[in-house]
């Protein structure tokens, strides 16, 4: 199923839940999930500046994973920032967060304006081109606790975001684009019942930076 941002609703999957002068908000109406998309949560001017600063200022690293005994590079660069003293395991990699920087604190404050929670960490992904991706997964690491709240903001090149139900195989895959300055919220049972990915694309795409704000429940 395809979501076209130019036509407001597609196949009744999305229910428009609010519409202010500057914020278009859509609620995805699928079973076992609570997913909301703000198309332009940040203005273009804000997003352009954020993109440039994150690109320059973030301490990007190339992580490796073991696959059939072989070490391979993750197809993206990552970084982990947050309250000091919290460790987090992701794709079998343990990360020690780097302390918040001014631009990250600014973005965090902006998303917390509507979040009604306070995030203690953020995972950043840098997709250099269409060959960079993140494959099917749920953000369901034990450190995130039950029904994690994930606020995901995107800057730079537009990429396709796909969701598939873990158990109801008859449900079609859902996909929509994450645009420059968008905010995607996933909460409730979303991670328990759904997986998501950013697929590779052969299209020419601009570099993209994504930040997922998370709450780590336990210190390790
Ligand atoms: O880049 C994205 O939009 C998704 C990233 C993601 O799923 C993750 O970091 O867990
Ligand atoms: Fe994820």
Automatic annotation (TrEMBL):
For activity, the cofactor(s) needed are: Fe(2+)
User: Carries keyword Repeat?
Assistant: no
Q: Which GO terms describe its biological process?
A: DNA alkylation repair
* Keyword Magnesium part of the UniProt annotation: yes
Q: Which UniProt keywords apply?
A: Dioxygenase, DNA damage, DNA repair, Iron, Magnesium, Metal-binding, Oxidoreductase
Q: Which residues form the Fe2OG dioxygenase domain?
A: 118-217
Cross-referenced Gene3D superfamilies, in alphabetical order?
A: Alpha-ketoglutarate-dependent dioxygenase AlkB-like (2.60.120.590)
Q: Name one Pfam family in it.
A: 2OG-FeII_Oxy_2
Q: Which GO-annotated molecular functions does the record name?
A: catalytic activity, acting on DNA; demethylase activity; dioxygenase activity; hydrolase activity; metal ion binding; oxidoreductase activity, acting on paired donors, with incorporation or reduction of molecular oxygen
* Record protein name field: Alpha-ketoglutarate-dependent dioxygenase AlkB
């Amino acid at each position: 199923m395809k979501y076209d941002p130019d036509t407001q609703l597609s196949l009744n999957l999305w229910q428009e839940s609010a519409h202010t002068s500057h914020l278009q908000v859509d609620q995805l109406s699928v079973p076992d999930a609570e997913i909301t998309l703000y198309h332009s949560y940040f203005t273009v001017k804000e997003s352009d500046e954020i993109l440039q600063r994150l690109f320059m200022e973030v301490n990007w690293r190339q992580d490796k994973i073991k696959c059939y005994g072989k070490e391979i590079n993750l197809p993206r660069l990552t970084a982990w920032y947050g309250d000091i003293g919290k460790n987090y395991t992701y794709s079998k990699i343990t990360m020690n967060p780097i302390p918040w920087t001014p631009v990250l604190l600014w973005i965090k404050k902006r998303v917390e304006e509507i979040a009604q929670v306070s995030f203690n960490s953020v995972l950043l992904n840098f997709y250099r081109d269409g060959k960079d991706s993140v494959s099917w997964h749920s953000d369901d690491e034990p450190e995130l606790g039950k029904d994690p709240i994930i606020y995901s903001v995107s800057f730079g090149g537009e990429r396709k975001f796909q969701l598939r139900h873990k158990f109801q195989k008859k449900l079609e895959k859902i996909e929509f684009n994450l645009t420059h300055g968008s905010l995607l919220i996933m909460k409730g049972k979303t991670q328990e019942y759904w997986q998501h990915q950013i697929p590779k694309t052969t299209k020419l795409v601009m570099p993209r930076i994504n930040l997922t704000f998370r709450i780590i429940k336990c210190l390790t």
